[in-house]
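Run: sequence + DGJ -> complex structure.
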Amino acid sequence: MAKADIIFDQAQQIFHLRNEKISYIMGISEGEILTHLYFGRRISSYHGTRDYLRYERGLSPNLAGAPGQVDRHYSKDVLPQEFAGNQTGDFRSPAIIIKAADGALATDFRYDSWEVFAGKPELVGLPQAYVKDTNEAQTLAITLKDKTLQASVILYYTIYAERAVITRSTQVINNSENIFYIEKVASLQLDMPKRDMDVISFPGSQFHERQVERQKLRQGITEFGSRRGASSHHMNPFVIAVDATTTEQSGEAYGIQLVYSGNHQFTFEKDYIDQIRLVSGINEDGFSWQLKPNDHFQSPEAILVYSDAGLNGMSQTYHHLLRERVARGQHQYQDRPIVINNWEATYFDFNAQKIEDILDEAAPLGIEMFVLDDGWFGQRDDDERSLGDWYEYTSKLADGGGLRGLSEKVHAKNMKFGLWFEPEMISKNSDLYQQHPDYALQIPNRPMSLSRDQYVLDFSRPEVVENIYQQMTAILDRVPIDYIKWDMNRHMTEVHSAILSADQQGEVSHRYILGVYNLVEGLTTRYPEILMEGCSSGGGRFDAGMLYYFPQTWTSDSTDAAERIKIQYGTTFGYPVSNMTAHVAAVPNPQTQRHISLKTRGDVASSGVFGYELNVQELTQGEKDLVKEQIAFYKKHRHLIQFGDFYRLKNPFTSNEAAWEFVSPDGSDVLVYHFRMLASGQQPFTITKLVNLIPDGVYVDQATGERFTGDELMYVGRYDDPTQAGDYVSQVRSYYLD
Ligand code: DGJ
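>> structure
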């Protein structure tokens, strides 16, 4: 096995974290400041090429507390650092702000000590990348201290032996006798020298998640984040810093991803000499954490990836790490079942007969799991009631023997049975709200904002989490259930908890997320056999934090194939295909009213974890035959799609086409998808070139029997089919290595 090394060079006062792919180098500079020296492609050893250049700059303060004559050539204002303080000489975005007992907001953490561990210490109560064996990684813990505050910060850096990954997190400890307040604490800071860089972010909205935006970093602050209480559709907690020249297949890329599902912040700051700083972690807006003497606070984890093989190289590293060392449980590597979900077929308007009719049609098509979506509990006939009442709506499914009867019927058809929950919410019109109105997040004497006619439960309160746990386990213990769709359909307003003191209200949003993690950890531990899928009005909480508990996530409430091509393309930059569920919906599409052929809809959905979300009874015989073919195709290639290597080939955000490729780890099995968006009166001939094949291997087109060498498919490329008429057409080619 390859090794990860962590070296402390006493003479040079540097730390060098190194494996065969990457190096991460820090130094202890004058005044015991922990400086950043290098992160990138592995180097064998460091001999001072990035040591700080002494240079006097106007308006740049010099080091406070230095013994003897102050060096006017040395200033934190431009010094690349690992964890910058506030109001103590560096005017760029700080990594940490603490409000002391006297109200001061200054922080200045200096190097104190270091320790190295084999493996990776566990972050209690938080999602994280893990190791299975302590040989897989090494962890460096560097302690910094602010003597005035009597506070310590421990910076954790884990380097995996075989991955171009460094995970980072921060622990703050109060060693003083006073309470203080953490007003900001970054999970990571990354300073880089002057460089012409772009940043790629993944903004969006409901039905429109993870769009790909690339922009030039300019002097000043460029910031991405969420203050919605969830990682959100609106800005994914993942960004990529790239050289202006980096492409999909070449150049350097630095991925920064938070393993976190709540409010987040990525602040890029290009300073006045064009150096770049990134600071990222829990969003500082609305955050404040009271830290008592001897207490500590642990930040969420950040996953830093380096690639010198372009964006695809970076994505490969994330796909493998998230699939292999963030996702857990017995479904981690299991082929995921093909789903039929009743939501877009019936919405709330179903009964036992309607569901049985869907089952009767779906089972012979080869569908493997039925998911009963929203509407089976309380008095839930619409979205104005019953969230929080997780007991069966007995009269709705009475004729079919209730949920248990339905579960038996589904199982009798050799299908699995799944059920929808929205555990974090409460309707005003619910028994739970009648009994515990204070369970909803609210500020006394301030009107409460509704959204989708519901409120958010105060999951920062353990008794609220416990109430929902008891209700859910009562159902799950009684009804045989194979899968849960965990939904979350509104964001936080009036963020205030009845049980926290006035000066702890800034803790609510983070405590809420810890409450969510606690509940899902409890449920996944108690029911390891249940496959759980995250969802939040579609892909509103598509993040590495939820992936630690749920091996798959509903990618978007947009089931329109044209929109989905872009959403799925954008999602793959940071997340593996095994995490990304995709369903074929009816036409006209419920969200866009667009008509796209069943073939293209199938091809788009079969590029993820596949399923259907339509009324199968309304399909014509011809359509049913095609659905059967799609299902048979998916079953044949499912493992390759869900667990093979995935590469983006053509970008739908910048062209009229999209293309992507799945390759098995040994290069022997290849699947290529090509999509043309809009048709043209003079259709251009387009060529798709493949990547990562064996150059002198012979690849056979499974449909035509034509034979091509890998290098021909990669460097010459094949024409795409120009003959299909109309907009949004697709072509799938499959090859095997002879
Ligand atoms: C939002 C989800 O994204 C949909 O798939 C569906 O489950 C509805 N909620 C149900 O209310």
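>> summary
The longest strand covers residues 180-192. The chain has three domains: 5-325, 347-643, 657-737.
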